[in-house]
Q: What sequence folds into this?
């Protein structure tokens, strides 16, 4: 049974279906012993990788005949059975079908393997039944190791996907425990990334630089957007690591992520079903956990320790004497670095040139002086500008607005600040 209708034929899907049809034809010629139904949606990237892993295993199983059915309404009580009216010999399910089909699975004694189905409250049989899960503990450990290998962060945070699923809690706990073993006893947590005001407040009040593990792509995209709105450079001030990249697409091609082993999970599910099929109906329930082991490192969380070290030293020099009008060449000399190397490090850490970063830092100090009640002339003198006119030109060049427009926006700002987010104290490192 092959339900290919409504499946978009992108290159990956087309390749998978060609392999599936070849496997199906080979199984027909060999008069397969076992008819296996895989319940998958090939419109989903993760499921295509799962299914690819199953096909890899099937290539070495001449006694298998693999069938494909889409989940949801397509996998109903009728689809549960073969055209002959008999149940299939085994099932691999990655998304649930109708309640009738899932009830039939739960009540039967037919070998069944579920892969990573959300929610662990599904009816569990005592035999001929196994589940395959992504190891969330390994994900938290990988994230902690990744951040700790980069630099000394002032704070660590975890942002959930806000969907209430169990994996959020498991990844957070593992991340927290892995950091605790290295002497970091505080991880601040935010659970609703889709409330933009609360997320902005949370990010703004984290000690910087900060390392943020996101439970998944939705949280990572929201955190990156909020960091950009607050003018917090990635990864210089905020370092972001996500899990998976299914929904990132071109919009998130700068976000580092942990790559789940989806293909390995599919292979493990097929192998487990094979074990049950040959177990003479006496196989007890098993839960198989597949660890993640690969991080795709992009610009939101670079692993270049030298670049981080250069940025941290430059920041310390600028903070120590904000009145000095540092130039790129002078900063390179003080750091004993070639100017070209300094430029590369700054572009990697901040996304902008060293000169632009220095100009923005000076303007930030000038804003603080103005907010503290200093006049325009006093703020200009305190922050190394030649005159008040030079400061107003800097506003126009870097902010895209005049000094007067900036003042007007401050006066007209009426949006109340959200209440403080509950967070634990900053750890001493």
A:
């Amino acid at each position: 049974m092959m339900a290919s209708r409504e499946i978009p034929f992108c290159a990956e899907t087309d390749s998978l279906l060609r392999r599936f049809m070849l496997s199906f034809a080979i199984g027909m010629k060999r008069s397969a012993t076992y008819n296996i139904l895989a319940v998958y949606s090939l419109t989903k990237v993760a499921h295509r990788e799962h299914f690819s892993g199953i096909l890899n295993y099937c290539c070495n199983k001449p006694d298998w005949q693999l069938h494909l059915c889409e989940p949801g309404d397509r996998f109903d009580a009728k689809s549960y059975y073969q055209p002959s009216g008999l149940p299939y010999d085994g099932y691999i399910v990655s998304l649930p079908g109708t309640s009738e089909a899932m009830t039939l699975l739960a009540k039967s004694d037919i070998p069944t393997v579920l892969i990573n189905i959300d929610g662990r409250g599904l009816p569990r049989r005592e035999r001929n039944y196994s589940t395959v899960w992504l190891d969330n503990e390994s994900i938290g450990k990988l994230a902690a190791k990744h951040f700790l290998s980069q630099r000394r962060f002032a704070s660590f945070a975890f942002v959930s996907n806000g969907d209430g699923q169990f994996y959020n809690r498991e990844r957070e706990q593992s991340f927290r425990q892995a950091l605790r073993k290295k002497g970091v006893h505080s991880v601040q947590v935010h659970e609703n990334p889709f409330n933009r005001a609360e997320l902005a407040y949370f990010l703004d009040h984290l000690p910087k630089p900060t390392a943020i593990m996101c439970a998944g792509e939705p949280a990572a995209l929201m955190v990156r957007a909020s960091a950009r709105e607050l003018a917090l450079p990635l990864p210089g001030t905020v370092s972001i690591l996500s899990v998976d990249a299914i929904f990132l697409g071109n919009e998130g091609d700068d976000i580092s992520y942990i790559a789940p082993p989806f293909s390995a999970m599919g292979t493990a599910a097929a192998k487990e079903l094979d074990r049950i099929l040959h177990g003479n109906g006496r196989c007890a329930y098993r839960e198989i956990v597949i660890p993640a082991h690969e991080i795709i490192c992009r610009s939101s969380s670079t692993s270049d320790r030298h670049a981080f070290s250069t940025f941290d030293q430059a920041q310390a020099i600028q903070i120590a004497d904000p009145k000095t009008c540092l130039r790129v060449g002078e900063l390179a000399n003080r750091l004993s670095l070639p100017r070209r190397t300094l430029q590369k490090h700054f572009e990697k850490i901040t996304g902008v040139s060293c000169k632009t970063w220095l100009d923005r830092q000076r303007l930030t100090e000038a804003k603080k002086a103005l907010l503290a009640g200093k006049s325009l002339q006093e703020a200009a003198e305190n922050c190394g500008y030649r005159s008040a006119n030079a400061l107003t030109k800097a506003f126009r060049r870097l902010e895209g607005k005049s000094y007067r427009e900036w003042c007007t926006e401050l006066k007209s700002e009426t949006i109340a600040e959200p209440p403080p987010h509950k967070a634990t104290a900053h750890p001493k490192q």
In short: The longest helix spans residues 11-30. The chain has a mean pLDDT of 80.
